[in-house]
Amino acid sequence: MTGLRILFVVRPSSVHSARWINQIASCGWDLHVFAASEGTWHPDFQNATGYSYASRSVDGTDKNFRARRLWPLPLGADRVKMLASRLPEGWSSRAAWLARVIRRLKPDIVHSLEFQQAGYLTLNARSLYEGRFPTWAVSNWGSDIYLYGPLSEHIDKIKGILAACDYYACECHRDVELAREYGFTKTALPVLPIAGGFQVEHLKQYRQPGPTSARRVIALKGYQHWAGRALVGLRAFELCADQIKAGGYTIALYLADFDVRIAAERIALRTGIPLEILPPAAHEEVLRLHGRSRVSIGLSISDGLSTSALEAMVMGAFPVQSNTSCLTELVKDGETALMVPAEDPLEVAAAIRRALSDDALVDRAAEINMRLAAERLDYSVIQPQVVELYQRIAAEIEAQRTS
Asked: Up-side HSE of residue 241: CA atoms within 13 Å toward CB?
């Protein structure tokens, strides 16, 4: 199908959304992006038109990304809410606006990137849509059904999406099986990382020269929320502070909010462990951190492959990752990573001790993970599969039209 038109429903500030869509940005297709939530468009979006629902943050980029406000006037958020309250029920909802955009654009494919915001919104828009809804693909991000699926507030919505969508995408085989358990019967797309591929050769410049065992930084992802368990990692540092200090290591905390930073500083004061807290930084700086880290730790009660763990692998850091992710589909526990319970500081501390004491383990893992990254995670490997994915859907749509 030539002139393919795709409408993505996304979290506008998500780098994962931008990176996924950018893989097809040079195909010459007509790409559109609908904001499923408030927020500034991520600066990496390119070659697309973005639509935001009464948002103050509709800043575009300089990469041929055109941001449009759905409300025709530059109204403030409070003014918009006041005017919306006077409209007939449902007329001003985000789902209604999405339905209008779909009706106007008539996309060949609607692709919702993530379930809890983009997927639920698209499901609501579909219920408001008059006529035949376009072909609908939905991507499951790490926790979308693994964590939320059993919860009473979400199970019906998740089953509703899986019953209504035509195509389902995810980044691990575990989640394909889960989708089947929740009633999905149609086409499962190839299992691919949600953030797309890495420019592996290019990223080598951000890696500290020499073996991983010579590095003296331990990185910890600072998420402490509905899924993240950074405080467990901080407690684990306390439990092995003697080895961390004896080895001359520094703890580097990234993507941490105010509460986690306070906890980290207090632990550093109590134990004497050197601490570096990274300010909000560009993605490149996070990659540089992994590139100078001996160990990169990510703890959460639910995840997919975990993009941060993949970044660690690409950059030569040894991953210590919670066993609630499906990273084991890529790594071998005890050889190329250590998988730990997300909420057990004793187990996390034991993994840290092993990763700090076994030079051969981390150096061998870095070699294997780099080879795996080149073979399975490189942009040159992933991007053609993403293009083929949409070509396949387009061909099936065309076949249905002509049958």
From this structure: 14
Contacts for 238-242: CB closer than 8 Å, 24+ residues apart: 238/267, 238/270, 238/271, 238/345, 239/345, 239/346, 239/349, 240/349, 240/352, 240/353, 240/356, 241/271, 241/272, 241/273
Of 153, 236, 191, 198, which is closest to residue 378 (Cα–Cα)? 198
Hey, what amino acid is at 137?
A
Query: Is the separation of the CB atoms in 168 and 148 below 8 Å?
Result: no
Structure tokens given for 62: 């300089």
What single-letter amino acid sits at 257?
D
Q: How many Å apart are CA 337 and CA 321, to the nearest integer?
A: 7
**Biggest CA-to-CA distance, the chain:** 72
Pick the CATH number of 5-197+379-402 from 3.30.70.100, 3.65.10.10, 3.40.50.2000, 3.90.1200.10: 3.40.50.2000
pLDDT digits 0-9 by tens, 103-159: 999 999 999 999 999 999 999 999 999 999 999 999 999 889 999 999 999 999 999
Model confidence pLDDT, tens digit, residues 336-355: 999 999 999 999 999 999 99
Q: Which CATH superfamily is domain 200-377 in?
A: Glycogen Phosphorylase B; (3.40.50.2000)
Query: How far lies 60's CA from each of 29, 47, 49, 84, in Å?
Result: 19, 11, 9, 25
Same fold, 5-197+379-402 and 200-377: yes
Per-residue tokens: 91: 């007329």
Query: Where do the structural domains in the chain lie, given as residue ranges?
Result: 5-197+379-402, 200-377
- Please give the single-letter amino acid code of residue 304: G
Q: Which two tokens stand for residue 211?
A: 């073996």
Cα–Cα–Cα angle for 80, 122, 393, nearest 5°?
Answer: 140
Token pair listed for 145: 């059904």
Is the pLDDT at 37 greater than 60, yes or no? yes
